[in-house]
Amino acid sequence: MVTNFWTGKRVLFQGDSITDCGRVRETDDLGPGYPAKVAQIYRCLYPGNGTEFINRGVSGNRSCDLLARYEEDFLSVKPDFISILIGINDTWRRYDSADPTSTQQYENNYRTLLEQLRRDLPQAKLLVIEPFLIPADPQKETWHEDLAPKIQAARRLARQYADYFLPMDGLFQSQIVKGARPEELSEDGVHPTEAGHAVIAEAYLKLLGLL
């Protein structure tokens, strides 16, 4: 059996609908998105390693919602490794519901979450995935004015608290520069297609040296 730092560990995926991806809540279903792809590739490469994968992403969540779910969906899981992708709804609600989350509020919420994780789960490794917007919907182009400062906030927090950082906004832009069509990666600019989720999963595993 090939061993690595995930062997026998519990891996938690946290976030919003991008992570949730329609998972069946009543089971240990990971959904069809990047969490499932990460787990599937990992199990093929490292069979029998006893790694447990758990998806607790919730569609529509903002940074404040992760804080509200802290006891139930972070602490009670007792993870050894946690990845977090949050932020696009902190931007989206400004435009569809006139319910903005300022960059400072986002950063404060996220900082509180990361500080609590460092305090309560000091052994757990943290991966911060920056929020992203894929240029597949021209109507969302104006969102960059709100999202870009939040991406910078996620980067600041990752430098301070995270063990790993995945710059997904930049990585998706890189894919497009290399020739990928935005609509191949996302139909609405927010939710990745299967190909988009595959890009996240590949980058995730490569970052950790598992692929």
Q: What would your notes on this structure say?
A:
It is a single chain. With 211 residues, the protein is an alpha/beta fold. Helix content is 47%, strand content 11%. The chain contains ten helices and five strands. Strands 2-1-3-4-5 form a five-stranded parallel sheet, with helices on both faces. It is globular.
Mean pLDDT across the residues is 97
Find the count of extended strands (DSSP E, 2+ residues): 5
Helical amount: 40-55%
Rg is 16 Å
Order of helices and strands: EHHEHHEHHEHEHHH
Q: Proportion of β residues?
A: 5-15%
The total of helices stands at: 10
Q: Reading side by side through the largest sheet, how are the strands ordered?
A: 2-1-3-4-5
The CA-CA distance between the termini, in Å, is: 16 Å
Overall form: globular
Q: Which residues form runs of ≥5 with pLDDT under 50?
A: none
**SSE class:** alpha/beta
Q: Summarize the biggest pleated sheet.
A: 5 strands, parallel
Give me the secondary-structure topology.
Layout: E1 10-15, H1 17-20, H2 34-45, E2 52-55, H3 63-68, H4 70-73, E3 81-85, H5 88-96, H6 103-120, E4 125-129, H7 144-161, E5 164-166, H8 168-177, H9 182-185, H10 194-207
Parallel strand pairs: 1-2, 1-3, 3-4, 4-5
Helix pairs in contact: 2-10, 6-7
Keywords: Hydrolase
Domain SGNH hydrolase-type esterase: 15-199
GO molecular function: phosphatidylcholine lysophospholipase activity
